[in-house]
Amino acid sequence: MNEKKPYFLVADDDPVTRLMLCRFLEKIGYDALGVKNGAEVVDRFAERVPDVVLMDAKMPVMDGFQACLEIKKQPESAHVPVIMITGLNDEESVDRAFAVGATDFVPKPIHWAILRNRVRYLLQVLSAERQLHLAANVLESTAEGIVVTDSEATILTVNPAFERITGYTAAEAIGRRMSLLRSGRHDVAFYRHLWHALTTANSWQGEIWNRRKNGEIYPQWAHINAIRSPHGHTTNYVMIFSDLTASKESEETLLYLAGHDILTGLPNRHQFHERLGQLLAAAQREPGSMVAVFLLDLDRFKMVNDTMGHDVGDRLLVEVKERLIACTPSQATLARVGGDEFGLILPHPKSSDDLVTLARHILDDLAKPYRVGGMEFFLGCSIGIGIHPLDGEDVGTLTKNTDAAMSHAKEQGRNNWQFYRNDFNTASLARIILENSLRSALDRQEFLLYYQPQIDLRQMRLVGVEALIRWNHPEKGLVSPAEFIPLAEATGLIIPMGQWALLTACRQAKAWRQAGYPPLRMGVNLSGIQFKLPNFSQQVLATLQEVGVDPRHIELELTESIAMGDVAESLGKLQTLSQSSIRLAIDDFGTGFSSFGYLKKFPINTLKIDQSFVRTCTSTPEDAAIIRAFIGIAHSLGLRVIAEGVETEGQLAFMRAEQCDEIQGYYFSRPLAADAFQAFMDSWFNDKR
Question: What interhelical angle do 15-27 and 112-141 show, nearest 10?
Fold first, then answer.
């Protein structure tokens, strides 16, 4: 597309000069129209506004000075330059020409090269002025706020939209830093990222929260550009921004309507399922976390709705909502999931007793009479209860099963609650909670090792220690091994737990040895599930090598049932361990097969008599005889004997009389934490010096 030629209006009463001027302008690429006096200039100006007026100062009818005055009265002439061409060189005429609005002054005789360059320069200035005028109009009329700052973010100019959006007038803003608008909602990292983008890419755009003059914090969408000099130095910043308040409010309104029930204002089914999905995902990331779901269906509501009309029904539903809110724990989510159905999500239930208490509370509150429109109504409620992960690990399964529990509650005569599983009770939920907590206990470092001393009876010397695992539950405190060991074995968690126990015990044994204590035999219990692992022996040897502990100071304790399962396989594993100088003990001897024939085949070093026999050795002759036989046969096979659970002076005397090698029990010490056992050793060895 060809660019429009600049249009010159030329006035001179001399026809030759007028013609030469027009030819000259056309030759250098412009359009020109010649007239013979100032009056014609005024008339032609009204018909078509020229880009430049070039006229003689002295002309008949109307001279150039008067013509300039007349055309400058017209609004279209504000940006039209006027060049006076005259032979008058006195200062008074020059001053008069500029006084009436002339832009430039060219004397006669005309120097054509000077005129050409002056015209071209004037047109360049004119173009720049028009661009600035256009930019100023855009700046004034745009709906977006615009602010220009210097390189230090000091405000230089703002547009009316800036004033309207921020509440600051131009006078209040100019000269102040952009921090004037800062909301305090963004952290240092946000602004660091913004300035990094301006420094490296010369621009940044995004959502930013700023503060109006009245203190209101509001969202903006802003685009900031850095203006640089030819040498690359930042000279200015320009920010163009729009107010997102209305769109944010519309967005929030739409989101609210999409996720909430209009009548009650509660979350709807969609929002209920979305929230449940979030909680289930969180529960799966945090083993031990559980989620309970209640689905409630109002009994007899349909009859009220059909007979009394929807207006009454709606008022009843609002009243039901208010009563449910009063019952609902603060951390729970309540929703209306259907016409007369409500849902409740309760994270982290502690026991089924808590859930039952909540269900009864809801039933009692909803059973109270309702007064609507001067009439009294009675409603019941059927509640189904589902538990994640027991009744479903995803939203679909869990809600389907909970809905089935609600249907079962209706079948049982309504106005009652039912768990999805009929046999569900407090004990089973407590077991599930404990199991889930157990799954995360190792990661949370909740396990501890306690240590119980083993004393040589002949020399009354501390010769060994048994490492006993304990679970320090964050809420229950120390949990009995009788509770969590069977759970760990049933779930397979005993494998990582046992590996942790062996590693920790070996590290402790090495630490005590490096601290200067005499070498003690460290006994570590093994589970049958651990022992059955194909590479069990290699894992044990690798752990001892990793820690750097002497295998001669480690004794692995197995029960009879472990060792005597698959005899050939057990024998191979035990021989591998024994050949590496690891000691082996049969724990709780007398409670399993008690087959001495197998003991001759296995590389066993120690028998540990179960405390159930020791407890009654001084009062029950049969138990005393059994212990006596165990000790005699064990010695005949070259095995040492440790009696567990020695608590009294009489039990100690009995074991010494029967030549039991070592004892372990409360008589000398309960199991102790590592630091407490170290204090026990300090006391023991000091007393023996």
Answer: 60
